[in-house]
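Support reply, case 0932

Customer input (verbatim):
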Amino acid sequence: MNSHQRHLRRGFQWLGSATVIARVVDLVTMLAVLPFLTKQQVGVASLVLAIGMVVEAFVGLGTREALVQAQSVSRSQLDTLYWFVAAAACVLGALVVVAAPLLGALFGIAGMAVYFLAIAAKQPIVGAALVSLTMMNRDLQYERIAVVNVCATFGASLTRLGLAVSGAGVWALVAANCASGLYTLIGAQVARPFWPRPHLRIREISPLVHFGLRVAVSNGLEQVFRNVDLLLIGWFYGPAPLAVYRVAFAVAMEPAIAVGALINATALPIFARVSAAKDELAQSLLWSHRSPPL
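Our regenerated output:
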Protein backbone atom coordinates (compact mmCIF):
# COMPACT_ATOMS: atom_id res chain seq x y z
CA MET A 1 0.00 0.00 0.00
CA ASN A 2 1.57 3.31 -1.07
CA SER A 3 1.32 6.60 0.81
CA HIS A 4 -1.64 7.82 -1.24
CA GLN A 5 -3.60 4.67 -0.48
CA ARG A 6 -2.77 5.06 3.21
CA HIS A 7 -4.14 8.61 3.09
CA LEU A 8 -7.28 7.30 1.38
CA ARG A 9 -7.73 4.63 4.04
CA ARG A 10 -7.21 7.16 6.81
CA GLY A 11 -9.72 9.50 5.19
CA PHE A 12 -12.28 6.73 4.79
CA GLN A 13 -11.84 5.71 8.42
CA TRP A 14 -12.10 9.17 9.94
CA LEU A 15 -14.64 10.76 7.63
CA GLY A 16 -16.52 7.48 7.34
CA SER A 17 -16.90 7.20 11.10
CA ALA A 18 -17.91 10.85 11.31
CA THR A 19 -20.43 10.37 8.50
CA VAL A 20 -22.02 7.37 10.20
CA ILE A 21 -22.27 9.21 13.52
CA ALA A 22 -23.63 12.37 11.89
CA ARG A 23 -26.21 10.53 9.78
CA VAL A 24 -27.45 8.45 12.70
CA VAL A 25 -27.73 11.48 14.98
CA ASP A 26 -29.42 13.50 12.25
CA LEU A 27 -31.92 10.75 11.41
CA VAL A 28 -32.73 9.95 15.04
CA THR A 29 -33.37 13.58 15.94
CA MET A 30 -35.36 14.06 12.74
CA LEU A 31 -37.64 11.20 13.73
CA ALA A 32 -37.76 12.52 17.30
CA VAL A 33 -39.14 15.91 16.25
CA LEU A 34 -41.90 14.49 14.05
CA PRO A 35 -44.44 14.17 16.91
CA PHE A 36 -44.09 17.91 17.50
CA LEU A 37 -44.72 18.86 13.87
CA THR A 38 -47.61 18.45 11.47
CA LYS A 39 -47.21 16.87 8.04
CA GLN A 40 -47.88 20.28 6.54
CA GLN A 41 -45.00 21.81 8.49
CA VAL A 42 -42.59 18.99 7.61
CA GLY A 43 -43.57 19.27 3.95
CA VAL A 44 -43.07 23.04 3.80
CA ALA A 45 -39.69 22.70 5.49
CA SER A 46 -38.71 19.95 3.05
CA LEU A 47 -39.49 22.21 0.11
CA VAL A 48 -37.53 25.13 1.56
CA LEU A 49 -34.54 22.95 2.39
CA ALA A 50 -34.59 21.25 -1.03
CA ILE A 51 -34.38 24.64 -2.72
CA GLY A 52 -31.74 25.63 -0.19
CA MET A 53 -29.57 22.67 -1.20
CA VAL A 54 -29.65 23.81 -4.81
CA VAL A 55 -28.78 27.38 -3.80
CA GLU A 56 -25.95 26.28 -1.51
CA ALA A 57 -24.32 24.35 -4.35
CA PHE A 58 -23.33 27.71 -5.84
CA VAL A 59 -21.65 29.11 -2.71
CA GLY A 60 -18.06 29.82 -3.62
CA LEU A 61 -18.84 29.27 -7.31
CA GLY A 62 -16.90 26.01 -7.31
CA THR A 63 -13.70 27.54 -5.92
CA ARG A 64 -13.58 24.92 -3.15
CA GLU A 65 -12.80 22.19 -5.66
CA ALA A 66 -10.52 24.55 -7.55
CA LEU A 67 -8.55 25.30 -4.39
CA VAL A 68 -8.20 21.61 -3.52
CA GLN A 69 -6.73 20.72 -6.91
CA ALA A 70 -4.46 23.78 -7.27
CA GLN A 71 -0.77 22.91 -7.36
CA SER A 72 0.10 25.81 -5.04
CA VAL A 73 -1.70 28.69 -3.40
CA SER A 74 -0.36 31.86 -1.79
CA ARG A 75 -1.61 33.71 1.27
CA SER A 76 -2.66 36.67 -0.88
CA GLN A 77 -4.73 34.32 -3.06
CA LEU A 78 -6.45 32.94 0.04
CA ASP A 79 -7.23 36.46 1.26
CA THR A 80 -8.69 37.42 -2.10
CA LEU A 81 -10.60 34.16 -2.36
CA TYR A 82 -12.16 34.69 1.07
CA TRP A 83 -13.54 38.12 0.18
CA PHE A 84 -14.61 36.96 -3.28
CA VAL A 85 -16.53 34.02 -1.80
CA ALA A 86 -18.02 36.22 0.93
CA ALA A 87 -19.26 38.76 -1.61
CA ALA A 88 -20.67 36.07 -3.90
CA ALA A 89 -22.43 34.41 -0.94
CA CYS A 90 -24.01 37.72 0.10
CA VAL A 91 -25.26 38.28 -3.44
CA LEU A 92 -26.62 34.74 -3.49
CA GLY A 93 -28.40 35.30 -0.18
CA ALA A 94 -29.91 38.54 -1.49
CA LEU A 95 -31.18 36.73 -4.59
CA VAL A 96 -32.87 34.17 -2.35
CA VAL A 97 -34.67 36.95 -0.46
CA VAL A 98 -35.83 38.52 -3.73
CA ALA A 99 -36.99 35.19 -5.15
CA ALA A 100 -38.71 34.01 -1.95
CA PRO A 101 -42.16 35.55 -2.67
CA LEU A 102 -42.07 34.12 -6.20
CA LEU A 103 -41.22 30.65 -4.88
CA GLY A 104 -44.04 30.86 -2.34
CA ALA A 105 -46.48 31.83 -5.07
CA LEU A 106 -45.17 29.09 -7.37
CA PHE A 107 -45.96 26.38 -4.84
CA GLY A 108 -49.12 28.11 -3.66
CA ILE A 109 -48.17 27.99 0.03
CA ALA A 110 -49.07 31.04 2.07
CA GLY A 111 -46.30 32.29 4.35
CA MET A 112 -43.64 30.09 2.77
CA ALA A 113 -41.47 33.03 1.69
CA VAL A 114 -40.45 34.01 5.23
CA TYR A 115 -38.66 30.70 5.79
CA PHE A 116 -36.24 31.47 3.00
CA LEU A 117 -34.69 34.09 5.29
CA ALA A 118 -32.90 31.21 7.02
CA ILE A 119 -31.62 29.94 3.67
CA ALA A 120 -30.43 33.43 2.73
CA ALA A 121 -28.69 33.90 6.08
CA LYS A 122 -26.86 30.60 5.75
CA GLN A 123 -25.09 31.46 2.49
CA PRO A 124 -22.59 34.05 3.89
CA ILE A 125 -21.96 31.77 6.88
CA VAL A 126 -21.10 28.82 4.65
CA GLY A 127 -18.98 31.10 2.48
CA ALA A 128 -17.00 32.33 5.50
CA ALA A 129 -16.07 28.74 6.41
CA LEU A 130 -14.99 27.74 2.91
CA VAL A 131 -11.29 28.62 3.08
CA SER A 132 -10.70 26.99 6.48
CA LEU A 133 -12.56 23.80 5.56
CA THR A 134 -10.94 23.55 2.15
CA MET A 135 -7.43 24.03 3.48
CA MET A 136 -8.01 21.22 5.96
CA ASN A 137 -9.22 19.05 3.10
CA ARG A 138 -6.30 20.09 0.92
CA ASP A 139 -3.81 19.25 3.69
CA LEU A 140 -5.54 15.89 4.35
CA GLN A 141 -6.47 16.86 7.91
CA TYR A 142 -9.31 14.36 7.96
CA GLU A 143 -9.30 14.04 11.73
CA ARG A 144 -10.09 17.72 12.21
CA ILE A 145 -12.76 17.71 9.50
CA ALA A 146 -14.41 14.69 11.15
CA VAL A 147 -14.54 16.40 14.56
CA VAL A 148 -15.94 19.61 13.04
CA ASN A 149 -18.64 17.69 11.14
CA VAL A 150 -19.74 15.64 14.14
CA CYS A 151 -19.84 18.65 16.48
CA ALA A 152 -21.81 20.70 13.93
CA THR A 153 -24.29 17.85 13.48
CA PHE A 154 -24.79 17.49 17.22
CA GLY A 155 -25.31 21.24 17.57
CA ALA A 156 -27.81 21.41 14.71
CA SER A 157 -29.67 18.35 15.99
CA LEU A 158 -30.03 19.79 19.48
CA THR A 159 -31.18 23.08 17.96
CA ARG A 160 -33.78 21.27 15.86
CA LEU A 161 -35.05 19.27 18.81
CA GLY A 162 -35.18 22.26 21.14
CA LEU A 163 -37.07 24.42 18.65
CA ALA A 164 -39.51 21.64 17.81
CA VAL A 165 -40.33 20.95 21.45
CA SER A 166 -40.86 24.69 22.02
CA GLY A 167 -43.43 24.76 19.20
CA ALA A 168 -41.40 26.54 16.53
CA GLY A 169 -42.95 24.46 13.73
CA VAL A 170 -41.29 24.88 10.34
CA TRP A 171 -38.61 27.06 11.92
CA ALA A 172 -37.37 24.06 13.89
CA LEU A 173 -36.11 22.50 10.66
CA VAL A 174 -35.06 25.51 8.60
CA ALA A 175 -33.39 27.38 11.47
CA ALA A 176 -31.51 24.23 12.50
CA ASN A 177 -30.24 23.93 8.94
CA CYS A 178 -28.93 27.49 9.14
CA ALA A 179 -27.46 26.80 12.58
CA SER A 180 -25.49 23.85 11.18
CA GLY A 181 -23.63 26.32 8.96
CA LEU A 182 -22.86 28.52 11.96
CA TYR A 183 -21.60 25.58 14.03
CA THR A 184 -19.46 24.44 11.10
CA LEU A 185 -17.95 27.92 10.77
CA ILE A 186 -17.13 28.05 14.49
CA GLY A 187 -15.62 24.55 14.38
CA ALA A 188 -13.58 25.33 11.28
CA GLN A 189 -12.17 28.48 12.84
CA VAL A 190 -11.17 26.53 15.94
CA ALA A 191 -9.66 23.64 13.99
CA ARG A 192 -7.95 25.71 11.27
CA PRO A 193 -8.16 29.44 12.03
CA PHE A 194 -8.11 31.77 9.05
CA TRP A 195 -8.39 35.52 9.51
CA PRO A 196 -8.37 37.25 6.12
CA ARG A 197 -6.39 40.40 5.53
CA PRO A 198 -7.95 43.33 3.64
CA HIS A 199 -6.60 42.17 0.30
CA LEU A 200 -8.65 41.81 -2.88
CA ARG A 201 -7.11 41.27 -6.31
CA ILE A 202 -9.41 39.24 -8.49
CA ARG A 203 -6.70 38.70 -11.08
CA GLU A 204 -4.79 36.54 -8.58
CA ILE A 205 -7.62 34.01 -8.35
CA SER A 206 -8.87 34.14 -11.94
CA PRO A 207 -7.62 30.57 -12.67
CA LEU A 208 -9.47 29.30 -9.61
CA VAL A 209 -12.64 31.13 -10.58
CA HIS A 210 -12.43 29.95 -14.19
CA PHE A 211 -12.08 26.34 -13.05
CA GLY A 212 -14.68 26.77 -10.33
CA LEU A 213 -17.47 28.13 -12.53
CA ARG A 214 -17.64 24.84 -14.42
CA VAL A 215 -17.68 22.94 -11.15
CA ALA A 216 -20.44 25.19 -9.80
CA VAL A 217 -22.66 24.40 -12.77
CA SER A 218 -22.01 20.69 -12.25
CA ASN A 219 -22.75 20.95 -8.51
CA GLY A 220 -25.93 22.90 -9.16
CA LEU A 221 -27.21 20.37 -11.69
CA GLU A 222 -26.38 17.55 -9.29
CA GLN A 223 -28.44 19.15 -6.53
CA VAL A 224 -31.32 19.80 -8.92
CA PHE A 225 -31.25 16.10 -9.85
CA ARG A 226 -31.17 15.07 -6.18
CA ASN A 227 -34.02 17.34 -5.13
CA VAL A 228 -36.27 17.50 -8.20
CA ASP A 229 -38.45 14.69 -6.84
CA LEU A 230 -39.18 16.70 -3.69
CA LEU A 231 -39.98 19.81 -5.68
CA LEU A 232 -42.30 17.98 -8.07
CA ILE A 233 -44.15 16.13 -5.30
CA GLY A 234 -44.56 19.37 -3.36
CA TRP A 235 -45.82 21.14 -6.46
CA PHE A 236 -48.31 18.52 -7.64
CA TYR A 237 -49.45 16.98 -4.36
CA GLY A 238 -48.71 19.54 -1.68
CA PRO A 239 -46.68 19.61 1.55
CA ALA A 240 -48.46 16.83 3.50
CA PRO A 241 -47.81 13.99 1.00
CA LEU A 242 -44.30 15.36 0.53
CA ALA A 243 -43.65 14.98 4.27
CA VAL A 244 -44.44 11.24 4.11
CA TYR A 245 -42.22 10.80 1.05
CA ARG A 246 -39.36 12.81 2.57
CA VAL A 247 -39.20 10.74 5.76
CA ALA A 248 -39.38 7.45 3.85
CA PHE A 249 -36.70 8.61 1.42
CA ALA A 250 -34.38 9.66 4.24
CA VAL A 251 -34.65 6.26 5.92
CA ALA A 252 -34.09 4.34 2.67
CA MET A 253 -31.58 6.41 0.72
CA GLU A 254 -29.46 8.50 3.09
CA PRO A 255 -26.88 5.71 3.65
CA ALA A 256 -26.14 5.46 -0.07
CA ILE A 257 -25.94 9.24 -0.47
CA ALA A 258 -23.63 9.45 2.54
CA VAL A 259 -21.21 6.90 1.05
CA GLY A 260 -21.00 8.86 -2.20
CA ALA A 261 -20.31 12.12 -0.36
CA LEU A 262 -17.68 10.38 1.78
CA ILE A 263 -15.77 9.04 -1.21
CA ASN A 264 -15.83 12.40 -2.99
CA ALA A 265 -14.63 14.34 0.06
CA THR A 266 -11.82 11.88 0.80
CA ALA A 267 -10.59 11.13 -2.70
CA LEU A 268 -10.56 14.58 -4.33
CA PRO A 269 -7.41 15.94 -2.59
CA ILE A 270 -5.59 12.62 -3.09
CA PHE A 271 -6.45 12.44 -6.79
CA ALA A 272 -5.40 16.08 -7.19
CA ARG A 273 -1.96 15.28 -5.78
CA VAL A 274 -1.34 12.41 -8.19
CA SER A 275 -3.14 13.85 -11.21
CA ALA A 276 0.13 14.29 -13.12
CA ALA A 277 1.14 10.65 -12.58
CA LYS A 278 -1.37 8.57 -14.52
CA ASP A 279 -0.23 5.22 -13.12
CA GLU A 280 -0.53 6.38 -9.49
CA LEU A 281 -3.87 8.04 -10.24
CA ALA A 282 -5.20 4.83 -11.78
CA GLN A 283 -3.98 2.74 -8.83
CA SER A 284 -5.52 5.11 -6.29
CA LEU A 285 -8.80 5.22 -8.22
CA LEU A 286 -9.05 1.44 -8.43
CA TRP A 287 -8.09 1.04 -4.77
CA SER A 288 -10.75 3.52 -3.63
CA HIS A 289 -13.44 1.58 -5.53
CA ARG A 290 -12.33 -1.83 -4.28
CA SER A 291 -11.85 -0.87 -0.65
CA PRO A 292 -14.72 -0.39 1.83
CA PRO A 293 -15.21 3.19 3.11
CA LEU A 294 -14.61 2.04 6.72
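We compared this against your earlier run and they match. Two observations from our side: The chain has one domain: 3-290. Residues 239-273 form the longest helix (35 residues). Please reopen the case if you see a mismatch on your end.
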